[in-house]
Every structure is written in C-alpha cells, then in structure tokens.
Amino acid sequence: MKLSLHVWRQAGPNDTGRMEQITATDITEDMSFLEMLDKVNEDLINEGKEPIAFDHDCREGICGMCSLMINGVAHGPESGTTTCQLHMRSFRDGDAIYIEPWRSRAFPVIRDLMVDRGSFDRVMQAGGYISVNTGNAQDANSLPIKKADADAAFDAAACIGCGACVASCPNGSAMLFVAAKVSHLGHLPQGQPERSKRVQDMVAAMDAEGFGACSNHYECEAVCPKEIPADTIARMNRDLLKASLCD
Amino acid sequence: MKLDSKIPAGPIQEKWTQHRFNMKLVNPANKRKFRVIVVGSGLAGGAAAATLGELGYNVDCFCFQDSARRAHSIAAQGGINAAKNYPNDGDSIWRLFYDTVKGGDYRAREANVYRLAEISNSIIDTCVAQGVPFAREYGGLLDNRSFGGAQVSRTFYARGQTGQQLLIGAYQALSRQIAKGTVTMHTRTELQDIVVVDGHARGIITRNLVTGELKRHAADAVLLCTGGYGNVFYLSTNAMGSNVTAAVKAWKKGAGFANPCFTQIHPTCIPVSSDHQSKLTLMSESLRNDGRVWVPKKAGDTRPASEIPEDERDYYLERRYPSFGNLVPRDVASRAAKERCDAGFGVGPTGLAVYLDFADAIKRLGEDAVRARYGNLFHMYQKITADNPYKVPMKIFPAVHYTMGGLWVDYELQTTVPGLFALGECNFSDHGANRLGASALMQGLADGYFVAPYTVGHYLAQHGSMDASGKVTTDHPAFAEAEAALQDRIDSLMAIQGKQSVESFHKRLGKIMWDECGMARNKAGLESAITAIQELRKEFWADVRIPGSKQGCNPEIDKAGRVADFLEFGELMCRDALMREESCGGHFREEHQTEEGEAKRDDDGFAFAGVWEYQGDDTEPTLHKEDLEFEHVKLTTRSYK
Ligand SMILES: Cc1cc2nc3c(=O)[nH]c(=O)nc-3n(C[C@H](O)[C@H](O)[C@H](O)COP(=O)(O)OP(=O)(O)OC[C@H]3O[C@@H](n4cnc5c(N)ncnc54)[C@H](O)[C@@H]3O)c2cc1C
Ligand code: SF4
Ligand code: FES
C-alpha cells in the first residue's frame, strides 16, 4: 500500500506546529498502525530527516501510552481498539490519513504527536485509591463480594488512562476517566468509607487541571478503547450529588 | 567479588520470621531523614515505593513511561499464584515452594523460594484490600484457575488483565503516597548510571526524556526494579521501551550478574507475520486450561484445520506428557512446539506455528462460558490476525517472554554492591532456570510490598549515610565524574552520524540472539554469536545514525542508549550459555539431551548460580559460583509424563 500521511509536526512545546505531508510506501495489511509509522520513521531517518515522535510502549492495547487522532477520531476507525492494536487492513491503498496529537488544554503537546498527560496522574492523586497501608489486610475471603459487583468494578477498572475520552470531547472533559475510577472503587465494599470524599476531591482536581465540563455529547464513550459506557458518568454525578447533599 | 547469600540459620519455615525479628529497625522519627531511590514503577517498584513511603521514608521513584501506571507489569494477563488453598485441592505453602523449586529445574535458592510461597497469601489479602477486582464465584468468594506446572488451582486472576489490575492497585497506593508527599514521582526519566561512593550505592544519574537534561540524585539506598531484558532479542512480549540499561550499569559498577542466559520462551504467542513486526503478543498460558495443542499427523499438510479429521491430528503434548498434557511447564511446551515445527509439521504460511484449539471446550462449556473466561484474549487475537478463534483454532508459536537471570541478590535482595538492591524481574530471583506461570507477579509484589521494606530498613539502620562524615550529596566528585562520562557517551553517539538506524542494529542483534541463544543452543553457535555481536557493536559505534539534537525530546537517543547496552549484554548472555554445559529449564544445550529429546541436567557440575563480574570493556568477565544446596526438595529429573 501507498498512503498519503498528513502528520502534525511540532518541534517542542513552544513551537506553533504545522501539518506535514509524508508519503508512506510499502505498507502491508498485517502491519499495525504504529508499525506503519515505524516504517515511515525508518525511511525518514535514511533520508536524513527527523522521525515522527509518538508515544507507545506495550503495543498490546493495555498500557494506555499510545494515542493519536486518526482522521479526526481518537485511536482511529475501529471501535474498542487502541491505536497500537489498529491494523493497516482497516485502510486502502492510496488513502489519505490525517494524524494529530490529542488536543486538549490539559494535555500540552511535548513534541509532534506526544502530549503530557500528567494531569491524569494528579487527578488520581487527589483520591483515586483506598486508604489502606500494606500489611493491614484481613484474609481476602473474609469479605465476600457479590459477583455482579466485582464484575461491575472490574468493567470500570479496565480504563487504561489513555485520554481518548478527553481528546474527543468538544469540552475536553475528563468525566469518563474520573467516573471510571469512582465507579471501580464505588462498586466495592472496601471503597465505601471514602466514597463521598473521593468523588468530590477527584472532581475538584479535574476542574483545577483545566478539563472542561460534561455536556452529554457522548463522544467519549464512542472512542473509549475499553468501551467504558457513558452511564458511568451518570453514576458519578449521582454520587457527587449525594456527597454534596450530605455535606 | 564475594557471594554471601546471607541465608538465615534455622528451619526453613522459620527463617523469614526469625530474620525479620533479627533485622534492625529505623526509629520512626529518623525514617524521613533517609532518602531511598526506587527505579521502576511496575509491581516491584510501585509496591516498594508505596510501602517505603507509607513507612515514612523519603522516596524518589522513576519510570521512563509518561505515568507510573504504564510499567510493563500492566500487560500480564493470566494471574498470580498464592497458597491459599481456597479450592481445598491440597495446596499449601510447602507445595507452592516445592512446585516452584522443581519448576525452576533446581536452580533457585530454597530459602528465597520458601519465603516467596509464605508471603504469597498476604499479597492476595493486600490487593483485595486495595480494591483489586479479582474474579469471584457466585457465592462472592475468590475464584481460582490452574496454570502450567501445577496440579492444583492456585491462580487468582482478574479476567485476562490480572497484571493491569494488580498494577493499578500498586499505582493507587503510590498515588496516595505522592499526594502525601512521601514519594516524589519522576516520569519520563531514565536511569543512566549508578553512583557508588566508598563502596556503597549513593545515587543515580538520570536523563529527562522530555528535555534531554542530565540530573544527579543522591540517596541512602538505591532499588532497581527495572524489569526484564527480553528485548535483547528485539522481538519479545516485552514493551517497546523495556531495557537492560539499569542492570548493565549496575553490573559495570560492581554488581554481580547471575544466570543471564536463563530466558523463558513462552509457548503461546501469536506467530511472527512479517519483517516489519515490532513486537510479539502473548496469548495467556491460561488458555492451555481449555485449549488443546495439536499439529497435523502428516508433515507439510496444507489443508485448513477444519478439514483435518480427528484421527489425523497429533495432540503431541497429550501424547508425550499424559499426566500434565497441555499443562506442562513453559519450557517443555515451547521445545515440543519447536520440535514439531523443525520436523516439518508446523502450520500456517511460515510453518512456524501450531494450533491451539478451543472446539472441545466450546462444545463442553458453551461459547458464552469460554467468552467469559478468555473474551479479551480472543478479541485481541482476532484484532491482530483477523481470524476468529471461536470458529478456527488459534495459531501460536513460542516467543521470548521473561528473563529468570538478573542481578545477583542475597536473601535481603541486596546486590554485591552494598546499598544497591534489585527487585522483581530485574533480579535473578526465585525462579531458577524456568519460571512457572503466575509466579512473576507474585514475586514482584512479594519483593516490593513485603521483603524490601524490611531489608532496606535493616541496611539503612546500619549504613545509611548519616554517620559522622555527613550525608553524601550530589556535590560529591563521584557524581560529577559519572555525569561527565555519561555526557561523553551521548556526545560520542551523536557525533557518529553514520548511515544505519538504531532500530536496524537492534533487529540484527535480535536475530543473532534468537538464532544462537534462543530455544536451543550449542557451542559452535554461541561462539559464532559472540564474535558476531562484537562486530555488530563495533559497527554500531562507527555507523549508527541518530538524527536530531541532544537537547529536548529525541526518542532516537533514548533508543540508542538502550541498544548500546543490549549490544554489550547480549555477549554476556552467550558467554553464560556457553559456560553452562547442561540443559536445565529454559536453557537447552543441544549437546545435553536424552534420546527422547528431553533436557539433561548436570547436578554434579552445575547446581550453582553463575555470577559474572565485570572486568572492563575489553576484558572477559569472570565467573563466580553460588553453590545451591537442596535440603528440602530432592533433586530429581523433572518429569511431566
Ligand atoms: C505479556 C506478558 C504477560 C505476562 N503475564 C504474566 C502472568 O500472567 N503472571 C505472572 O506472574 N507474570 C506474568 N508476566 C511476567 C510479569 O508481568 C513480569 O515479570 C513482572 O510484571 C515484572 O514486574 P517488574 O516490576 O519487575 O517490572 P516492570 O513492570 O517491567 O517495570 C519496570 C519499571 O522500570 C522502569 N524502568 C526500566 N528501565 C528503566 C530505566 N533505565 N530508568 C528508569 N526507569 C526504568 C519502567 O519504566 C517500569 O516502571 C507477563 C509478562 C508479559 C510481558
Ligand atoms: S475512560 Fe476510556 S478513553 Fe478515557 S482514559 Fe479510560 S480507557 Fe481511555
Ligand atoms: S502502546 Fe500500550 S496501549 Fe497502545
């Protein structure tokens, strides 16, 4: 396959950046999208040019490090798929592909397609945990948990912290990400003591980081590679309301 | 180099309890005066940093990814072992200990393995308390599954994402400490050297991957939790950034490197499809619980699987190993697949694959039950191969997965450099020559949550740099020297401006390693590999091309540093494989096999950990031996027949 790539190039945080046209040649269907970029980079290096910087690590759809807006869609055209798990068989010979970084106030660009998602970590630090020290635990089976609750907790805990939800939201809201954590811990008995405080603190931190508000566009749900449903947000809003009433 | 394993005296069941009591404690008010560096935020590093923070130490934690949550532990799928015996199927601490020593082909230290088995239960308790959503049964209690190399069900799991859930647990604990100010997290920051002052590890030099800036960090102790070195093979199930840099730097600063040739080749991965492949994807071993491995009985049979009748299929694991069948340990399963493919029975376009078939399980349990167990794995398989494993058997082939070798550590997880500790996959650890499934997560968390927090305290109580001479600071000349050497190295790399990319060198190294130091090894091959690596290294330093500048973000420099270290390390692995004239666990020397092709161990000659001491760039390293004594598990030929 031969493809016409239009790639965002930005030398550093202070550069204004621009789209650059690059032709990708000898691309095969079984390559992953990132392997396609590897090939393009190898060619750029051989031509004495600078390769395209992008984030990635596990290439298995689990670490959450890869990103990319591909033709305007976070993680590209396949639903429930991270960029690293997207394969070139989803494209045709001659296609034009637009590749851009996550764009959001809370995710500044570092270089080309790499962004800084440190804001996610800081939101987690505000309360995305259960306050228990190592070594204080009772026997694991002394606390039975309904299978349905454990499964629901797991579904929310599957979030990989990639930031696609933010990147695709017209408001740059991080509600799905935050709701996933609130819901993970809120479904478990261990998470109850801090339930109100957690949701309030995390939402406050999210606001402080410059993420926008949620106005029910549901773009997040559509792009989330782990298919975290938007009703997770409704659940969080109920928790938030309850917490504010009890205060 | 003196190898003092510091195994405590007394009965094996009491060693750890007694040792914990004997170790010195640090007064609570003094803890915050000690600074501890933890390099790595995976299960080992994340757990250690969080726990040390909880105890009140001042911790600096580093990772090269953009968040602590992305360490490669996140990718572990299958599960974590513990001797809870919840299923009441006869498990015990003793059995987990026994299985691990045996599974490791008798090349691990008994006392460490016993401690690991002993701690395993507390890990599950801790993780549940943190909110790790393990799989449960309808009664609300925890569910277990079985894994290769064991005849009991002792594996706890969270669908096919156990590593993710355990790491998120550790990350949450770490986040809590960061918020409290006990831990400072340094993301996108890579360790580049270790600073040793008066024989003790007193700090590190890092490179900021965003700005390119080099920085000095002083501390009272340094913990390396930097994961495995499987990427020396280029293609492996590790993450793209996984590297051996920290371990190699430690080695060069005087830490012994143990058993570097012990690598685990995992039997069930998605086969390589083309030259452009950048990594290999594991299909969890748990699949072998319900999947049956087979190849056609006729060599070169090109019919699709569905057209090959039952009696023309060779379920070779069930045939060769009737008592363990598809659940034989990894090394055995991998070699059996290689044997079939080498003999011409392999399937798929390259002939380098075997089938893993779920038809029987789907018939027995129904598609929904199979989906509930393995849904995400099937999904991932389909994404990558475009085949539907509910309808056609998976094609799988062995791939490099885990490294049992690593920095030599004593019972306290301290390397031969005082104050320098190694945890998790980065140490040579408890798995001997072969790791059983679901035991790495257990070991990483045991080291991080339950062992290092005590043993590091013991070290600090005696040797923390708070003596009369005052604290070592980054103004010490040893820091300036290490930083200058590093700056030189980066400048030399940038000055080469040759013609070949970093990646192309990495691929060539990987091919040498896979061909000569992979699933089967022999003397001539290893000798040729050593020469080939030396030449490749020279070529790298003469002809590598690194575009861009050393200031700012430049991923090509990051890669170049890692590949340069792999190029040195690959040679050490081959030397170790050459030295070890026996077959054991994942190390298979073709010269040492039975007539049936099973590994032939040599306990008289090789019941030791081979520990290498660095002697200089152009000098051969020297070998030291830690003799392994087996008082509790009788050395027998490992049989899974
Ligand atoms: C695909 C896959 C599946 C697996 N499945 C299982 C399983 O089901 N059960 C099981 O028990 N085991 C499994 N394993 C093995 C297990 O996951 C690993 O052995 C274990 O998680 C390693 O943990 P760790 O903390 O030692 O290292 P890692 O999790 O790899 O963490 C390494 C850390 O070190 C940091 N680091 C590395 N180098 C540097 C440097 N130079 N400077 C700064 N930071 C650095 C990284 O950023 C990272 O934070 C699996 C492994 C893989 C690859
Ligand atoms: S909620 Fe989904 S899209 Fe958002 S960070 Fe988590 S996994 Fe990514
Ligand atoms: S690289 Fe890890 S999720 Fe894509």
SSE layout and pairing:
The complex is a heterodimer of chains A (247) and B (641).
Chain A: E1 3-9, E2 18-24, H1 33-46, E3 69-70, E4 73-74, E5 96-100, E6 109-111, E7 114-115, H2 118-125, H3 147-157, H4 164-168, H5 175-186, H6 195-208, H7 219-223, H8 231-246
Parallel strand pairs in A: 1-5
Antiparallel strand pairs in A: 1-2, 3-4, 3-5, 6-7
Chain B: H1 15-22, H2 28-31, E1 35-39, H3 43-55, E2 58-62, E3 80-81, H4 93-103, H5 110-130, E4 155-156, H6 162-180, E5 183-186, E6 189-197, E7 200-208, E8 214-218, E9 221-224, H7 245-252, E10 257-258, E11 263-269, E12 292-296, E13 313-314, H8 316-320, H9 330-342, E14 354-357, H10 359-365, H11 367-385, E15 394-403, E16 406-407, E17 420-422, H12 440-463, H13 477-496, E18 500-501, H14 502-517, H15 523-543, E19 544-545, H16 555-579, H17 603-606, E20 608-613, E21 622-627
Parallel strand pairs in B: 1-2, 1-9, 2-5, 9-17, 18-19
Antiparallel strand pairs in B: 3-4, 6-7, 7-8, 10-16, 10-20, 11-15, 12-13, 12-14, 14-15, 20-21
The complex binds flavin-adenine dinucleotide, iron/sulfur cluster and FE2/S2 (inorganic) cluster (FES).
Flavin-adenine dinucleotide binds next to α3, α6, β6, α7 and β15 of chain B.
